[in-house]
């Protein structure tokens, strides 16, 4: 009994799988350490089996050319995944900004599960963003954007570095803007609290107002953080749309 496999289709399947795996390793929410590597490999294999029939079969002339194609697909997947990661890092940056202004950064630590180096709000916002992406089916939009890249960037095509640079610049700018939009109101309140404590110290030097600064700012942060936290679902939806536009813009 002889079993023959179509070499061209198998090579195309491997190339598609390499791009998808590289993307899932970098792009949220799939980059979360809570998702086992086995699940990522199974998801990438299933997506590769679904996408491979719609892509053109690429049969390189030699093994060296095939290795070059594998490396190129891995770079495309990493580049596209990094675009998505930059867009969604606005949520973690907003949490870190709130921690800094609210005094929670003194308890900063490293979370090996989420790979986040931050305090309480940075971890809370990052984990909430991952949960919202799965609950609201936002991850399906991210996957659909990845699948659409195979139409604009077929196997063997190279990623335009100029478009990637422009997309990264736009994504970083949007990240800072989204960070200020998320944490801006609370940061303004905490800044005014610092100004009020400074004026109180000038009026009554004997009163150690800054000794009350940390408890007061922590109280204000815990009281008002719910306002920004309730806006996270709409913010995550907006960021998902931006990440999809970034992926499509680079691959078009």
From TrEMBL:
Pfam families: Bac_export_1 (PF01311). It comes from the Bacteria. The chain crosses the membrane at residues 12-30, 37-56, 68-91, 172-192, 212-232. It is found in: Cell membrane. It comes from Sanguibacter biliveldensis. One of its GO terms (biological process) is protein targeting. Coiled coil: none annotated. It is a multi-pass membrane protein. Belongs to the FliR/MopE/SpaR family. Keywords: Cell membrane, Cell projection, Cilium, Flagellum, Membrane, Transmembrane, Transmembrane helix. One of its GO terms (cellular component) is plasma membrane. InterPro entries: T3SS_IM_R. Its main location: membrane. This is Flagellar biosynthetic protein FliR.
